Amino acid sequence: MLTIPTRGDLHKRPVETDRLALVPVDASDGHELWFAVNGSRATLQRWLPWVQYHTDPVSSGRFAEACATDWDQGRAVRFVIREKSSGSLIGIVGLEQCVHMHRSAELGYWLRNEAHRRGYMTEAARCCVDFAFRRMGVHRVRVAAATDNHPSLKVIGRLGFRFEGVARQAEWCDGRWLDHAVFGLLATDA
Question: How confident is the model at residue 151 (pLDDT cuts 50, 70, 90)?
Answer without folding.
Answer: very high
